[in-house]
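The instructor's notes for this session suggest beginning with a concrete chain rather than abstract definitions. Hand out the sequence below and ask the class to guess, before any prediction is shown, which regions might be ordered.
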Amino acid sequence: MVRQKAFPIILVVVLIVLVLGSSVAQAVPMAQKGPDGITIPYAGRLTDEAGQPVADGAYDLTLSLYDAAFGGTLLWSEVQAGVAVGGGSFTAFLGRVTPLPESILADGSCWLEVAVRGPGADAFTPLSPRQALRPALPSTQAGVNAGAPCPHDHWGESWGDSSMGVNFPGPFVALHGHSQTWAGVLGQSTTNIGVLGLSTDATGVHGQSTNNDAGFFDSDSANYLDGDVALGGAVGKLVAHDGGGAELYLSALGDVAVKLDADKNGTHSFQVKNGLDFSVCWIEENGNLTCSGTKSAVVDTRETGWRQVYAVESPEVWHEDLGTASLMDGEVTVLFEPIYARTVNLADDYHVFVTPLSAEPVWLYVTAKTTSGFTVRGVTLDGRPAACALDYRVMAKRLGYEDVRLAPFAPVEVGR
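After discussion, reveal the predicted structure:
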C-alpha cells in the first residue's frame, strides 16, 4: 500500500503592506477541502493612508489568481459582493462563488490579486503587490496523479520537539480546526495543560457560539479547591464586557452557592460594590451581614403598588417574642416558648412590656421574671382583681451576643 505525504496548500505572506490609495490589506489564508471543493480563507484588514481602519460597511472584493507576480495570464477570478468589514477586518473565502480548479493549485506557484470597491464607489481598485500562493505538492509515485490532492490525515502523528508538538506561527489565524461531528481542535495532556492561550494585548482564548455554549468545562476532580473553571492570579474576575450596560448572569438548574475561604486560612467576606468600586455590603464567614444602606423587604400593597418596609435597627442584638395571655383572679404566669428560649440568654436581664385588653382601665405590672417565664398581675382602678386579656412583648439578648453593643466595623475593600 502506498501512503502519500500531506498536501497542505498555504498562502505565503511576508508581511507586505498592500497599499491602495487610502486602503491597505493583509492576509494569512490556509487552504481547506470540503464537500463543495477547495476554499481558501482570506483574512485581511483595510486601513486608510494614516493606518486607521476604514469605515465599517459592506465592501465588494474581486479575487483573482495569475501565473505571474506582474502581468501574466489570468487563471481564475470571482467577485464577492457585500463582504462585511468591521474595525477594518474582514474574512472572505476564495472559491465560495466560483470553484477553484485543483489543477491551478497543483501546477505550482500562482499569484493572488485583490481588488476592492468601497460603499458608494463605482469601480474596483486593485491592491498591490500580488501575493504568492505556493502549494506543497506530494511526490510523484506510480499509479498516482502528482498534481491531484488525495485523502489523508495525520491522526496519531506528532511533529516538533518535546516542549511543543506543532507550531504554526501567523499574525492572524495560526491554526484552524474544523469538524462536522466532534472537536475541531482537541488539546490533551496527562500531566499538564491541554490547551494554552497566551496574549499580551488581546484575548488569550476566545469562544463564540450562536446557539450553544461559547465555552464548556467539566472537571471530575475530588479536590475541594478544583472547579470546572479556575481563575488564576491574586484576584480572579468574571467581567461582562459588551458595552457599558452589559449584564452578568449566574444561572443554574439548582442551588447557587458562594463558598468563602475554601482553604480555611483566614477570615473573609462576600462583598457587593457600587459603581465607584466601594463595598456597600458584606457577608462574613460567620454569617454576619453588614450593609451601609437600609435593610428592607418589599410588599405588594395592590392599589399603591410595591412598597418597602424597613428593619428596625438596634445598638444591641435582641430577639423578640410577642403574644397574648389572660388574667385569672388578677394574675397570669406566661411561660417562654421552648424553641425561642433556646435562642436567647434568659439568665441575663430581659424586658417585658404588657398592654391590657379591657373595656375599663386596668393597672398591669410584672411581679416576677425567671428563666422559664414571667408573672403579670392586674387590678382595676377600684382595687378589684382584673379579669381581662393582655398583650405582651419580650426582648432578650441573643445567645452568644450578650456583650455586643455598637461594635466597631472596619470595612475591608477587596480588589482595590
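Then share the key points. The first strand starts at residue 9 and ends at 11. The mean pLDDT is 80.
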